[in-house]
Structure to design on (124 residues):
């Protein structure tokens, strides 16, 4: 197995774990100490997602740089919405629009990620 394949697997692992941590933290009571701990662990995974995504971006941007750039931006916006949901809900602010944006961005990111050359050909 080459390094790039390992980076792809690391990236998929980190975003799957990151989304699971986010959803579990979002479903917990806002005053819970466990939520704060999960939120901090989720932030660590956000950084790992960005690092592994950046490694893939720099490696494959020569194939179709514009689309990989759009995917990188969508992934960044997805992480931003995840963070906004957790922070705004902990401050008892409305998160309805942020949840909608999260789902739009995560679906667009996944669609584009699977559609690009190193993705899985589910949408071909």
């Amino acid at each position: 197995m080459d390094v790039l394949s390992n980076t792809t697997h690391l990236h998929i692992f980190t975003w799957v774990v990151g989304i699971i941590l986010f959803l579990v933290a979002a479903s917990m009571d806002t005053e819970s100490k466990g939520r704060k701990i999960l939120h901090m662990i989720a932030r660590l995974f956000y950084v790992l997602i960005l690092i592994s995504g950046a490694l893939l971006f720099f490696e494959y941007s020569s194939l179709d740089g514009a689309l990989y750039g759009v995917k990188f931006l969508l992934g960044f916006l997805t992480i931003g919405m995840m963070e906004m949901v957790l922070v705004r809900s902990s401050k008892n602010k409305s998160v309805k629009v942020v949840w909608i944006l999260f789902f739009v961005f995560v679906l667009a990111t996944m669609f584009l990620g699977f559609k690009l050359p190193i993705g899985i050909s589910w949408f071909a």
